[in-house]
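User:
Care to share a sequence and structure tokens?

Assistant:
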Amino acid sequence: MDTLGFLLDGFMVALTPANLMWVTIGGLLGTIIGMLPGLGPATGVAVLLPLTFSMGPTAALITMGGVYYGAMFGGSRASILINTPGDGAAVAATFDGYPMTQQGRAESALAISAISSFFGGIFATVCMVAIAIPVARFALKFGPAEYFMLFLFALSATAAMSEGNRLKGFIATIFGLMIATIGIDGQSGVIRFSMGILELQSGIDFLIIIIAVYALGEVFKSFKNIDSGKAKVQTNFGKIWISMEDWKRSVWPILRSAPLGFFVGALPGAGGTMASLMAYNNEKQLSKHPEEFGEGAIEGLAAPESANNAASVGAMIPMLTLGIPGSGTTAVMMGALLLLGQQPGPMLFQQQPLIVWGLIASMFIGNIILAVINIPLAGVLVRVLSVPPKILYPIVLGLSFVGAYAISYSVMDFYILVIFGLVGYFMSKAKFPTTPMILAVIVGNNMEQSFRRAYKIADGDVGIFFGSPICLILFTLTIISIFYPLLRGYFIKRKAGKA
């Protein structure tokens, strides 16, 4: 009953005219940003951060949430119409979405994409309502040692999930932890790694690094092709809806993929890309006609779309209940919350329940609004795909500098922005994943402080990190997260060798 009461309170917050406006604006902006190839939800939230600086924490979180799952709705538009995914989570939508467009079924593809995203989002939000309070109450049992082990697990899992770049994922994590140590040590007062620069004594604001890596890094990456034209986009459509036969083929893939997406999304570092690809492969294996996958099978589009929207909601569970971002986008959202003076984690549910439940209630409302926006207005929205890069990226560049300056009104932040924008660019060129570094920058300071507090409490005995069942479970999960991808790769190769 507590949960129902909190949810009703959340709806009273989310249904105020101002918050309804912000969830609509956030969802619409997220849909548009998600459609633009290369930007994606993390960059979208990073670029739009300045919008939230003048808001209260509830409105800011509702707006950023709308941008996040709005981008999941919009990400597949470019995949379906021009075979170019808006972000990694929309890659699977190209497999059958674009063939459907080539067959003259773009209307059905756009409709099932929005319908699947809607069901995935609603299902995941219901799951979030069910488990948020139990997880938050469980997290209240954590002391400094448990938190250190939790941070260790989150960082290890995120680095290990860097498919094909696992070693680089761990190197990026260490690099992020090194950045987090810059500035005055909160316990000893010692100035660390500031290189004599006065402005670095207070450390580097991780929001600057987030904007630099996601937004500026993307502009640098796209600079070479900034004069390239845009692909010709279909803008005239018939009725955007699906037939009864299409629905019968899609309904079970949608229902099966939503819980999978929610579970995968809640894992640190897994994210929508992994969720959508796993859902696609699952449906292909379960299908009676796997040969139709890749040739325009509508269930091959419905499954990943349901999964990636459910994953975006699942990724908020560890951020809200434990204070651990589940994805690059939730890392940006967590950074914005910290800037607004709110510490995500179990105490947020006790001290600021209206913020948390206002966000959760807004997800129900936002998914309905986005379904309304993305089905009847799809023909209008896809015209955004015609915006040339030489107009789009200068806008992103300008918003990045405005956002960085608005954080602390320091010109020094411009230099930091450019330096880390180049860092993000070269990391991308060298195929180093940026999400582990961003996560390490955000949690690095808390992780260090937790370690030192636990070490002092135990009077120098490291056994405290293995002294409780929670610590032992988290240590075991850390080991599994590191070695599971290696074992899985071994068994896949062994199975392939026998075939």
Summary: The first strand starts at residue 183 and ends at 184. The two ends are 54 Å apart (CA to CA). The mean pLDDT is 85. The chain is about 75% helix and 0% strand.
